[in-house]
Amino acid sequence: MIRRLLTALACLAALGFAAPALAKSAHDSEFRQIRSGEPLLLRADRAYVLLSIDIDLFKFSANIMHVPDEAEIAAYRAARTAAHAKAGSKAGPLESFAFDYKGRPNFFALQPGKAIVAAGKINTVLAELSPGGYIVYGLSMGVHLHECFCLGTVGFTAGAGKVTDLGTLLTANAWQPSTIPELKDETDLGRSAAMDFGLFAAALPPAGADAPLPAGLTPAQVSPATFRAVGIFVELNTLLINRLAAMPGVLGYREGRVIDGKTWGRNTAYGGGDNMSNHHPLRERSWTTFSRNDWAKRE
């Protein structure tokens, strides 16, 4: 199945769905992963996120998106409209038009292949990025978005000068049973989750007390992320759509709706607006939908 999925991604690239090249200096100024052996110096003007990734199934990267402000959204829309007009009739719909955006990047991949600590099947990554609000956006193979959490996920704030621990990313094949407790409601979905492309389930429980920390980082310097529920949004350029597993007290689901676990009300934060789905540079994937009836089985 993994070989098939990698082949599919290669085919998409051959058909013109290659990710646009970002200016390296611009990307690096916004985000970089700290590598093993690198001196750890926490800057007061930068934020840091820590994530443990279970690589037992596959070395999925976790995608996060910095939530843009209104000025960034306006700049992106203007650039997209201009590029779309220049491309002419071959461009297709404006909403799914992909182009090489030269503005501030805000879509990043926490890659287990660049782990700062590796222990057994757990690779721990530490990234330096701009302070602000972020969305746990989906899973990727490398840096290319493979599966978005369009049907429900969480957001968090990364504070300046602080290390925010996102917990542990767990994944499993959605079409098969899983022994991972956090994924019991997101797996064993049967053949409908393994048709042209297999769907993957993902959960983000807190890191265990015995989770290894990078050298030079003490428990006193690390704070667990304060998550908030993020409602359903549209992402046209992903191979698959799914949702992040429920989080007690934070994220829940009821008949396919996202429920804010803190208030037990329907969550609308960031839901379906341009501030979510229309402002990141990696918009280069086709969209595979999942049957509404199949989602209902998980309620």
Could you tell me the strand content as a percent range?
A: 25-35%
In whole angstroms, the N-to-C terminal distance is 27 Å
Tally of contiguous helical segments: 5
Secondary structure class reads: alpha+beta
What gross morphology would you assign?
globular
What is the string of SSEs from the N terminus onward?
Answer: HHEEEHEEEEEEEEEEEEEEHH
What helical percentage do the residues reach? Answer: 10-25%
The low-pLDDT segments are 1-23, 267-299
Rg value: 19 Å
Give a short account of the largest sheet: 7 strands, mixed
Instruction: Return the average pLDDT rounded to an integer.
Output: 81
Count the strands?
17
Number of domains: 1
Note down, in words, how this protein is organized.
By secondary structure, this protein is α+β, with helices and mostly antiparallel strands. It has one domain (2-296). The chain has helices spanning 2-14, 24-30, 70-87, 274-277, 292-296; strands spanning 31-33, 47-54, 61-66, 107-110, 117-119, 122-129, 132-141, 144-148, 153-158, 163-173, 200-203, 222-224, 228-230, 240-241, 251-254, 257-260, 265-266. The strands form three sheets. Strands 1, 2, 5, 6, 10, 11 and 12 form a seven-stranded mixed sheet that branches. Strands 3, 4, 7, 8, 9, 13 and 14 form a seven-stranded mixed sheet that branches. A hairpin with a 2-residue loop joins strand 5 (117-119) and strand 6. The chain is globular and about 55 Å long. The two termini are 27 Å apart.
